Amino acid sequence: MVMNKVVSGGAEREVSTAPQAASVPGSTARMTPARGMAAPVRVAGERVREGHGPVSLLERLGERLSFERMSARMYEALATKLERCGTFESGPRREDLMAIREEEVGHIGILRHAIEKLGGDPRELGRAARVVRVANSGVFQVIVNPRTSLAQGLEAMLMVERADCDGWHMLIEMARAVGEHRMSDSFYLASTEEERHVELLRRWVTHHALQDVIAGAEVLDAA
Ligand SMILES: [Fe+2]
After folding, report:
1. 10 & 61 share domain
2. How far is the CA of 53 from the centre of ligand 1 (A)?
3. What is the pLDDT of residues 16-38, one digit of tens each?
4. Which residue from 75, 91, 125, 179 has the fewest beta carbons nearer than 10 Å?
5. What is the total count of domains within the chain?
6. Could you give the dihedral angle defined by the CA atoms of residues 15, 178, 51 and 46, in that order, rounded to the nearest 10 degrees?
7. Ligand 1 centroid from CA 157, angstroms
8. Are residues 22 and 72 in the same domain?
9. Where are stretches of biased composition, namely Polar residues (predicted)?
């Protein structure tokens, strides 16, 4: 990537001279067409290089978007599994799972809006988004496999939600770092919902594990 130094408003900054760069009408920002998240997307006064600033924020937003889309599908699959297998004592009800799914869908909306604000296209998958999709595909297979139990599916989902929480916390920090404070606030709201998802899943998984260990102890006592 060729970078030239320019002076604007007394401040020196670097801009890409990539042929796809184009001015945005009514804005001092420069943006590429939406495709290709790896290329610089906007230069708005900050020092922006490939892998830095709004460019890498876009990549991470795409990653999170891919994650949330898969999470919504995983909760749908968990609800289907629950319908088929039933639940356990103090376990989730179908409406609990679908309520979480609705919040994941809300997070998809937040991310789509943020990506569009930075000049990206939420329909396109960046490299990080593709990696996340591959990484989470194993968990999805555990959930949809008819030979696994609801508890095993919930345990796999707990792993995903823990990673999701970390991802949102990172986005909050990244948005703040590039001056997108309103965006960062919306990410904070999503992260509090994700923390509640972790707490609910941890509670259900723990209840099931305790029931398992108590049942095992009763079998040993009866022997
Ligand atoms: Fe979640």
Report:
1. no
2. 26
3. 333 333 333 333 333 333 343 33
4. 179
5. 2
6. 20
7. 9
8. no
9. 17-30
